[in-house]
Structure formats: structure tokens, C-alpha cells
Design brief:
By secondary structure, this protein is α/β, with parallel strands linked by helices. The chain has 13 helices and 12 strands.
Amino acid sequence: MANAQPIKQFAPPRRILIIKLRHHGDMLLTTPVISTLKQHYPEAEIDMLMYLETRDMLASEPDLTNLFTIDRTWKKQGTLAHLRHESRLIKQLTARKYDLVVNLADQWRSALVAKLTGAPVRLGFDLPKRKGKLWQFCHTHLVDVSNHHQLHTVEQNLSILAPLQLSSVDTRVTMSYSREDAAYVAKLLEKQQVNDDFVVIQPTSRWFFKCWTDEKMAETITALHGEGKTIVLTSGPAENELQMIDRILALSPKGGVVSLAGQLSLRQLAALIDKASLFIGVDSVPMHMAAALQTPLVALFGPSKRVFWSPWQAKGEVIWAGDFCELPDPDDIDTHTSERYLDAIPTQRVIDAARKRLL
């Protein structure tokens, strides 16, 4: 029977696997778990199992040895091809002979992988939706989640380490990038004649209900531009995000506003944000990256669960739309809605917060 009792007679692990199968931002918020394990087990090799599309978030993480990935397009290749991919992955993981598996995921696949590794210690969460015996069978220790509704995602992740009885935890979220990423961004800025004093603005999210209006974003850009600030706009490569950037550019001053929208990898974007004087953005992965990099920020936050997803260790200000209007429950939102719940945030409120951070 799995339980969350302290682990007895646990020798320092030589190899550790962390499993997290979620989105980009979720992966970034696992870095405190990685750092904590490395600090307490400095000789251990730490691997990560994640979705292929999120690999870039942790590809430069210095405390990780191997990144194993699951490509969600495998299932589109037919049953036999899918099974071959899964079998190859399991063989790679079992060959590592893990001493400890930390399963931060909630999918059945993650539990079965944890069991199949053969690791003698396998930590998981005692999730309300996973009360069956199979979930217990796949883990040696299940950690209580009854207080998770009060905890930030970072704190939720770290709670899984309780059975290890570690003397301390590292709560810092970190975003790493390579020297090549930094050099690429430096050349790009030089080409665009952008000096060291610039503001990065990410107006877009893959879900537009988290976005501000194009007009208000353009007003903010115009105000900061009028005070001599160079603005660098960024976004993801999706067509709807690029169209949003085009609309904002059409409403903004023609000089001193540069668009790098869709041109940067996540780690290149991190290198750019790290050099910026200020980051302004909505509830999205770049917001979490700015907080991790300790770049001064102004974050516009809407109907997401603030307790879970507010920018951790942010060096700046979070402006919540709920202070200006009534927001729907995050669980009731149609993610495909065209409504922009951040519209209630006044433009001047954002401009004033940006000025304060730029002083």
C-alpha cells in the first residue's frame, strides 16, 4: 500500500527521474524540485521525462543529465509505430536503473512509466481522481494533496519531496539559456539598432481570453515610446498571434518599436528578456520566464487561478483584472471565447506601473 510516510534507510540516489507531462509554464515551475534534489544529492544524475514540445524550456538546465521526451504525434503514426516508440522509451528508462522516481504528473501513463522503471522508491501525488489500487501499485509513496488548493504550483511540486525528509528546499524558479542563445539575440538587437535600454512587451497568449485589447497595448507602447524607450514586441509563431502583433504595430509609433514576433525560440526569448530593462506581458510562459530571470515586470493577470499561477518571485507588479470588474470562475471559461477579460484594466494603470519600474 503506497503511503506518504518518511522513507527509511534511503541511501543517496545515484540516478533520479522526474516526470512532468504538461505545458511549457508547468515545466519551468518544476525547476525548484530539480535544484532541491541536486543540492541534497550532488552526485546524482537527474533526468526528466516530458513532452517533446516543451523540451526547450529545460534544454539548458545545468542540473539535468538527460531529457527523455514523449512526442504526442506518435499516436497519429498508427498503432504499431506508436507501440515501437513507447517500447523504445521504456527500454531507455529501464536501462538507466533509477533509484528514485518523482512523478509530478497526473496521467496514468506517468504512473505506469514510474512502475516500469523498477525504481525502488517512486513518489507520486495522492490525487482525488486517482484513488484506485493501480495508482497506488505504481508508486511506493503517495503524498497528500488536500492543501494544494492553498498552494502555488511551485509549492505543490515541492511538496512531493516530503517523504525524503530533506532539511531544506530551494524555492527559486530558474530559466536557463546558452551562450549561443545570448549571442544570437545580441546580433539580432544590433541589427535592429536596439541599445541596452529597451522594454520587452509580449501582448499575446495562446488563449486570447488572457489578452488585453490591441488599442490599450498600443496606447501603452506610445506612452513609453514618448519617454524615449525602445520597445521590442514578441509573440509565439502562431498565425493569430502574429496578426495581433501586426494590429498593435499599426496603432503604434513607426520608429523605436521593433517586432521580433515569432522569430525566437523560448531560450532565445529568455536571453532577450534577461537583457531588458522591463518586461510587460499577460499571463503566459514569457511572464513566468521574466519572473524567473528577475527582470522587472508588469504582469497583466485575468481569470486564471492566481494562487496557482501568479508569477513566482516576481520582481515587479501584478495587475489583476478582478480589481476592476467581476471575473468568471477560471473553471467555467470557454478557452476559445473571443472575450478579453483583461479589458477592464485601465491603460493608465499599466503605464504608471511601468514608469515606476523604469525609474
